[in-house]
Amino acid sequence: MDYSIESLPLDKLQSDCLLVGMYENQLFSPLATALDAICNGLLRKLVSRGDIKGKNADTLLINNVPHANIERIILVGFGESGKVTRKSYRKALAAAIKTVKDSKVKAGCCALLDIQVADADIQWQTRQIIEVFNDGLYQYTATKQCDEKLPLQQLAILANPQNQPQVEIGLQQGIAIAQGVELSKQLADLPGNICTPSYLAEQAMILAGQHEKLNCEILEEKDMQALGMGAFLSVSRGSRQPAKLIGLFYQGGLPSSKPIVFIGKGLTFDAGGISLKPGLGMDEMKYDMCGGAAVLGVLRVASLLNLKLNIIGLVPSSENLPDGDANKPGDILTSMSGKTIEVLNTDAEGRLILCDTLTYAKKFNPEVVIDLATLTGACVVALGRVPSGLFGNDDPLCEELLRAGDTACDSLWRMPIWEEYLEQLKSNFADLANIGGPDGGSITAACFLSRFAEDFRWAHLDIAGTAWRTGTNKGATGRPVPLLSQYLLNYVSAG
Ligand code: BES
Ligand code: MN
Ligand code: ZN
User: Fold this and answer.
1) Cα–Cα dist 59/94, whole Å
2) What average pLDDT does the chain have?
3) Pocket test for ligand 1, best of 276, 345, 347 (most atoms within 8 A of CB)
């Protein structure tokens, strides 16, 4: 998709399809009012006879517009005037792009920057238009013929010349974030027989090849052996695919500045191992690498935006399968940190690959470490599919992340990791058990990780409920790429 800025006045504009906004109670946005005037009151007429109410996410496609240069208009409802929130703005944009998609136009022009959004500016709005539209236009094509080829090729955003500088930045950020999200979705939607640890590693190499400041290094099983990553390697022993520890290194800052480290769980398929999962819905465990996919996505965003920061992305990648050589309940592992772990359930494998990666992260002298993982079904039970779970050992870091999530509409909800919960991880035979029983499962998982993150500021995002949609509309969401991109942007502007 080609995204651009259009700054012609409405009466000079030529468009296949122009999107304009309205509110409830027949209130038009300034651009809709101007458009109505040059179309002989057509919009007013359609609204008066009740064709569209203007409720949030209402849309009306108008063909046969009495104007030589405008073929079609899509009127988009934003709800009550003065009450448009960041979330409701995005919701209306999603409805708008769906209508554009259904209308089969080749080029569109979006005149929706004149909608007033509480707590948002034109730059944010521009960015969201690109993000939401690109998300709505995503099609999975890797292993399936498209139902229909998408005709839309160009999308312009109509901007008042006065706002040009802000819109320009918003456009750039929007395109970068949209591309990061798209990469994550593409990788995550691939099946486990294509997207193996080796495939993920190859994609990371390709990504690094596309950006000058980005480098990639892959640790092989023998390297991990030498580092003593007994917890990570125990998981991959049950798989015929070799495990990979992918390292992406983005050098945008001074060599002396400490890196932000992202760690993404890259389980390319999680069958549970010997503690085998039930069959129903097991296909969705190809998404157990969404954290890893998001790490690749975020590094793409940072590279595209040329952020003046040092960022490291680490993706431990493996499969978790039942096998004669797989982990067994009761097995005791020695992690890279030296702590021993009793495997009480082989399906709690995410924490095993993450704990060694957390220990490994220390050698980079990180400013902060943020891990992203589809870690627990319990997190989905606790929070549903709206926010990701946030856990961390540093309040300012958690607050920064919460704030970024709010702005990006990719929200988080903080959960406790109090020491009382550590009781549940006691083992008679090892320093730690890998599960903490049925109570507070997402919390005990985070507490487990916290034992390997004692030497740095650390946050853990449990994205089990937010990284993909289930049901008939199954598919990856690309979350939390928007949130982490916002976190990085805020970090850069704070200096
Ligand atoms: N990848 C799963 C977590 C998961 C489950 C994500 C469902 C999304 C939806 C993870 O490896 C896992 O299996 N966790 C177990 C932990 C349990 C054995 C303590 C779980 O959540 O059941
Ligand atoms: Mn599992
Ligand atoms: Zn898993």
Assistant:
1) 10
2) 97
3) 347
